[in-house]
Amino acid sequence: MSSQDIPEENLPSTQDEVHGGAVTTKVADPFADPGMPPHEHRIQDIDERAAKRSERAVAFLFLLSMLATVGFIASYVTLPVDKIIYVFPIGHISALNFSLGLTLGVALFCIGAGAVHWARTLMSDVEVADERHAIAAEPEVKAKVMADFREGAEESAIGRRPLIRRTMFGALALLPLSGVVLLRDLGPLPGTKLRKTAWSEGKMLVNQNTLQPLRPEDIQVGSLTFAMPEGMKEEDHDFQKEIAKAALMIVRLQPDNIKDKRELDWSVDGIVAFSKICTHVGCPISLYEQQTHHVLCPCHQSTFDLSDGGRVIFGPAGHALPQLRIKVNDKGYLEAMGDFAEPVGPAYWERG
């Protein structure tokens, strides 16, 4: 293909130059930078009434987002989980799921649409070309960046458009409440459930194997007995949940071997009762060493000294085993004088 076949308007332009009497022809750069196109003003730039209309439109979108967020929370609180509705063309769907999805979608969309409309109609749209520079900017460049930032903030009109500013902050402040409300789906609030067990004043200690109330003479020195509160039955629907907190281990020590004064005061003739639940991750403790009075958790080898307030002497457990205060009632049976003074298991790190 020869140059004669190329349209004349597509050929690079030429320019003749004279150097010392000789004429040379210089071809212009076909890829020269054309520069920035001339800036065209928007209607909002020259008409304040149009700018006010855009401002009201943006504020309306932010207000609609706020209302949708309130609707999300109201739907979550008021709509039952099992309510089914028909929505065309989806079909039958959970009213709660449909309402939550619709309101949250509207809240997010309106914030995004409001921000886009704000940027396209009210913020400055003047294109600025700037030279690239090294990553480690000079102080002059940093100062220019900060100046550009301040200029951009001024040109965004956020200071001169209080209606937009307030409604945007309101929409952004309300939207996170949707996520906070959803935290309720983690389960019901625990209340005092972690602090309370099935033990209470006057409840007799029942042997977990024979299901018979325990007398002091039933506990031999060196033996380990597992007990539970009277009234609990394995066929109860909440038995596993309750026994997981109330499981008790009972040992009989020589009173002279008990080092902790409170432990001695809470015991009966050397019989001490401690929670069976390890304070590390809640495993049941079942290994007892008679000579040292130590109990060992089989999961991670946390070791507790039952002669010294159930304190930890080895392993990852962070707390001593809670002790149950016991006495002998009028019928000669062992009974609790209340609940554990501390939460059982790994319920809390700080137990003050």
UniProtKB/TrEMBL annotation:
**Compositional bias per record (Polar residues), positions renumbered to this chain:** 1-15
The entry lists its GO molecular-function terms as:
2 iron, 2 sulfur cluster binding; metal ion binding; monooxygenase activity; oxidoreductase activity, acting on paired donors, with incorporation or reduction of molecular oxygen
Which residue intervals define the domain Rieske in the entry?
264-335
Q: What superkingdom does the record give?
A: Bacteria
Gene Ontology cellular component terms for the protein in this record? plasma membrane
- What topology in the membrane does the UniProt record assign? Multi-pass membrane protein
Compartments reported by the entry: Cell membrane
Query: Entry's InterPro entries?
Result: QcrA_N, Rieske_2Fe-2S, Rieske_2Fe-2S_sf, Rieske_Fe-S_prot, Rieske_Fe-S_prot_C
Sorted alphabetically, the keyword list is: 2Fe-2S, Cell membrane, Disulfide bond, Electron transport, Iron, Iron-sulfur, Membrane, Metal-binding, Oxidoreductase, Respiratory chain, Transmembrane, Transmembrane helix, Transport
Which cofactor does the UniProt annotation name?
[2Fe-2S] cluster
- CDD domains, per the entry: Rieske
TM segment ranges: 57-78, 98-119, 168-187
Family membership, please give it: Belongs to the Rieske iron-sulfur protein family.
Q: Which PANTHER family match?
A: CYTOCHROME B-C1 COMPLEX SUBUNIT RIESKE, MITOCHONDRIAL
- Role this protein plays: Iron-sulfur subunit of the cytochrome bc1 complex, an essential component of the respiratory electron transport chain required for ATP synthesis. The bc1 complex catalyzes the oxidation of menaquinol and the reduction of cytochrome c in the respiratory chain. The bc1 complex operates through a Q-cycle mechanism that couples electron transfer to generation of the proton gradient that drives ATP synthesis.
Record's subunit section: The cytochrome bc1 complex is composed of a cytochrome b (QcrB), the Rieske iron-sulfur protein (QcrA) and a diheme cytochrome c (QcrC) subunit.
Descriptive protein name? Cytochrome bc1 complex Rieske iron-sulfur subunit
